[in-house]
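User: Some background: our group keeps a shared notebook of sequences we're curious about, and every so often someone picks one and asks for a predicted structure to add to the entry. Today it's my turn. The entry only has the sequence so far, pasted here. Could you supply the structure so I can complete it?
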Amino acid sequence: MSRVIISGIEGRMGRTLREIMKAEPSFQELEVVAGFDMADGMADGVPVFSAPDKTPGDVPKADVVIDFSNHAFVPQVLRFCKETKTPIIVATTALDEAELQDVREASKTIAVFRSANMSLGVNLVAKMSQFTAPVVEGEFNIEIIEAHHNEKKDAPSGTSLLIADAINDSLKSRKDYVYGRYGREEKPSIMEIGIHAVRGGSIPGQHTVMFAGPDEVIEITHTVYSRKVFAIGALKAAAFVIGRPPGLYDMNSLLSEV
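Assistant: Of course. Here's the predicted structure to add to the notebook entry:
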């Protein structure tokens, strides 16, 4: 049995993680032993800590931390993990550059698994886009259109940037990112990737990569119908990272062993 701490245990993803761990036989070897959240207390019979980095000795020992919290909370969770030598899954999005640097620094001493999107499907879309982009480079315009629920604050999504970065990494010449086209009077350049964000209703998430060329269009689309896909991806990442040496891992690391 592997012991898990959920950071953000009282949030929507924290609750989803707990539900899946109870319901899915493939994840019942994972046991929640504690949680981190905004207030001290209890959740599903396990203790919850609001400042884990201040009193790490009070937190039950775990084999991995899964973090679905808030970007501002991530640095102290990383401090806890470094102090206790606990691997961590950083599933929280919208990290700023300082917080990303904290992630990179932590990976020097512990195993850190981070992805801008924990869905296996989204990361396969990035892989397919990496295959497609070099073939049509110089001939096709590339556009990324993403849609999310009306409570999502950041735009564009981290997933859009993950896909755009994956495409750029596969090209001979890097393309610039253009966020929307309002106020731009010049025609789109072949050296740009257009990134467009839609917000509305309860859409969990949809991303389309469009390769638009002369007289033909290729589209790769991923649609999420439930937050469960992110929780399942995080739990697979947790099983993957336990026992790994220090380093920075991502979905490419996991997919390479599937």
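Suggested note for the entry: The chain has two domains: 2-114+227-255, 120-224. The first strand starts at residue 2 and ends at 7.
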